[in-house]
Automatic annotation (TrEMBL):
Listed PROSITE patterns: SHIKIMATE_KINASE
CDD domains listed in its UniProt record: SK
Record lineage: Bacteria, Pseudomonadati, Verrucomicrobiota, Opitutia, Puniceicoccales
Keywords, ordered alphabetically: Amino-acid biosynthesis, Aromatic amino acid biosynthesis, ATP-binding, Cytoplasm, Kinase, Magnesium, Metal-binding, Nucleotide-binding, Transferase
Subunit structure comment from the entry: Monomer.
Protein name per Swiss-Prot or TrEMBL: Shikimate kinase
Chain positions recorded as Mg(2+) binding sites: S26
Classification via Gene3D superfamilies: P-loop containing nucleotide triphosphate hydrolases (3.40.50.300)
A Pfam family: SKI
Organism: Cerasicoccus arenae
Pathway(s) where this gene product acts: Metabolic intermediate biosynthesis; chorismate biosynthesis; chorismate from D-erythrose 4-phosphate and phosphoenolpyruvate: step 5/7
């Protein structure tokens, strides 16, 4: 019984980092996990490991809808319920109800970057099947226009252009401590 109380006392809500590809979710997520003393998970890497193949192969063989189902499964049963910083794939929150599910499971922070920054950060990365098109800059602009209203509903927004990732991690860390205290206070019986 004492062990369960100690574990429960140490349990902290997960922090989900969402946003478009190339906004820094994985880099910031690793830094935040170290700073917070939490485990870092990357939804894309977890799916690749579970499937035994890279994302482009999943997209090529099964298509985007199948990959989105794998993301759904990851959120609903593929990771611990607490003490994790989770870097989510760029399209994960686009599925209906997914933002609400992440908020139910923890805190959500959304990372943004300009289309130019995203193009620069993703250029030449073969692991970006949605950008394997003739005009990746136009594809980024189109996807951002489609997804931005969804991202804006996700949670606190942090812009990653022209800032060191360590500084962004500090801002999100402050947000996490403030909001996790608020969340924990709501859960305590009165």
């Amino acid at each position: 019984m004492a062990d369960r109380k100690q574990t429960a006392a140490k349990a902290r809500p997960n922090l989900y980092l969402v946003g478009f590809m190339g906004t820094g979710k994985s880099t910031v997520g690793r830094a935040l996990a170290r700073r917070l003393g939490m485990q870092h998970l990357d939804s894309d890497r977890a799916i690749e490991e579970a499937q035994g193949r890279p994302i482009p192969d999943i997209f090529a063989a099964e298509g985007e809808a199948y990959f989105r189902k794998l993301e759904y499964d990851f959120v609903h049963s593929g990771h611990p319920e607490s003490n994790c910083v989770v870097s989510c794939g760029g399209g994960l929150v686009t599925a209906p109800g997914m933002i609400e599910e992440l908020k139910r499971r923890g805190l959500v922070a959304c990372l943004f970057a300009s289309p130019e920054t995203i193009l620069s950060r993703t250029k030449g990365n073969a692991n970006r099947p949605l950008l394997n098109v003739a005009d990746p800059a136009q594809r980024i602009a189109d996807l951002l226009a489609e997804r931005e209203p969804i991202y804006l509903q996700a949670g606190a927004c942090f812009y990653t252009d022209h800032q060191p990732m360590v500084e962004i991690a500090r801002h999100i860390e402050r947000y996490y401590f403030r909001e996790s205290r608020r969340l924990t206070a709501k859960e305590k019986p009165r």
